[in-house]
Amino acid sequence: MLPFAMATSMPVRLRIFSLNCWGIRYMSKYCVERYAMIGEVLSREHHDIVLLQEVWSEKDYLFLKKTLACCHPYSYYFKSGVIGSGLAVFSKHRIHEAFLYRYSLNGYPYMAHHGDWFGGKAVGLVHLNISGLKIHVYVTHLHAEYCREKDSYLPHRVVQAWELQHFVRHTSSGADVVILGGDLNMHPQDLGSRLVWTYTGLKDCYTETEHFDGCENGITLISDNPFINKAELGPFEKGIRIDYILFKGSGKVDVKCESLSTTKGSISGKPFPLSDHEALSAQLLLMPVVEVRQDRDNELATDNLPELVDIVNEVRTEVKVGLHCTERKRHTAARTGFMGVVLLLLELAIAMVPWLALAAEQPFPRASFYLLGALCFAILLSTSMLYLFYTTELKALQGAEDQMRLAIGSLQEKLKTLETPQKSPARCVDSNTEHPDG
C-alpha cells in the first residue's frame, strides 16, 4: 500500500507572533493605548498565527477582534478562572477546533496581590488546516516566578510544566506540525523548561533559527523596558528570556525556523513599548517529505532517555518538597482551627453562666463578648477554607507525584531494554531429524 499522500508537496511558510500583553485593566500602564498599538502592529505585519497572553478583559479581546477582522478573520478567546485565562488566538486560517486545559495548581487565593490564582492559568489548543497540513497550535501562560531565591511557587510551576508536556504529547499525535507559544515564566535551563523540551521533542526557535534579530541572548524581559522594575530582575541585570515559540514536525513534514525577531523596547514613533514583555515573531518553513517516515517521537524519547529519567526524578523531588510544605500548612490550619473551636466553646460556656446561676450577671461586657465570638467564628471559617484548599493542593501534588513515579518506572524499563544486549535466537533442531551417527 502506498503511503498517505500529502495534500501539498510545496513548502509552506508560516509567520507566528507571540506576546504577553500585560493587559490588566485599570492597573497596567497605558493599557488602552497599548492595545491600540498592538492592533496597529498586527494589522501591518500580517502574521499567519497570533498568540496572545494576559488579555484579561474580554472587552480588549473584542477590540482586537474588530481591529484585526480583515487580516485575521478567525479568532478564539479561552475563558477560565475568575477573570479568564488571558489566552487568545488570532489566525488567517480557519480554526476548526479549540480546547482548553486548566492547570490543577495555580498559586494561592490569599496571595491576591500576585493574582495568578484568579487568572486560571491554562493551555489552549486550536486545530488549523493549512495547505492540507494538520497544524496543532498551543498557547499557554505558566505561573510567575516572583522571587527566584525563595520561589514558593516552584512546585506549582513544575506541575504545570508536567501537565503541559502531557497535554501536548497526548493531543498532538495526529498533527503534522506542532507549534507552542507563550510566556512560560521559566528560563531556558530551568527544570520545567528542560522537562517540556525533552519529553515533547519541541524545539526552541531561538536556538534553531537561521537568522535572529532582537535583544541580546533573546531576552524578552529587558531592563531597558520602562514598564520593568529592575529590582525584580534580581541578578539578571540585562534581563531574562521567559517567552518562547516552540515547534516540532512529524514523519510527514520537516520544520525549520528561518528567522526569529523580538521587539527591543519602545516601538519606533511611539512613546512606550507594546508591553512589559517583548514580542516574538518567527517564520517557520514547513517542508513535506517525499517519503513518509515513521513518527519520530519514539526516536526522540529513546535518544534522550537517560536525560529524561534524571529530569523526571528532579521534578519528582521538587513535587515532594511541595508536598511536605503543603502538609505542614494543612496541619497549621487544622491546629489553628482547633484553637478557634476551643475559644468558641469557652465563650459558649461563659454565656451559659447567667443561665446556670440565675442571680449572676454577665461576667464581662456584652460588646467584648460579641467581638470575641466574631473573632472565633472568623478564625474557624478562614482555617476551614484554608484546610480545604490545602487538601485540594495536596491531592493535586500527590496525583502528579504518582504519575511521575509511573513514568520513571516505564522509562527505566525502556532504558534497561535498550541496554540489554539482544540475544541471538537459538537454532531449533527438529526432533524427527536423525542424527548423522545413526
TrEMBL record:
It is a multi-pass membrane protein. GO terms for molecular function: metal ion binding; sphingomyelin phosphodiesterase activity. One of its GO terms (cellular component) is membrane. It is an enzyme of class 3 (hydrolase). GO terms for biological process: sphingolipid metabolic process. It comes from the Eukaryota. Its EC number is 3.1.4.12. The chain crosses the membrane at residues 338-357, 369-390. Gene3D superfamilies: Endonuclease/exonuclease/phosphatase. Keywords: Hydrolase, Lipid metabolism, Magnesium, Membrane, Metal-binding, Sphingolipid metabolism, Transmembrane, Transmembrane helix. It is found in: Membrane. This is Sphingomyelin phosphodiesterase 2. It comes from Denticeps clupeoides. The gene is smpd2b.
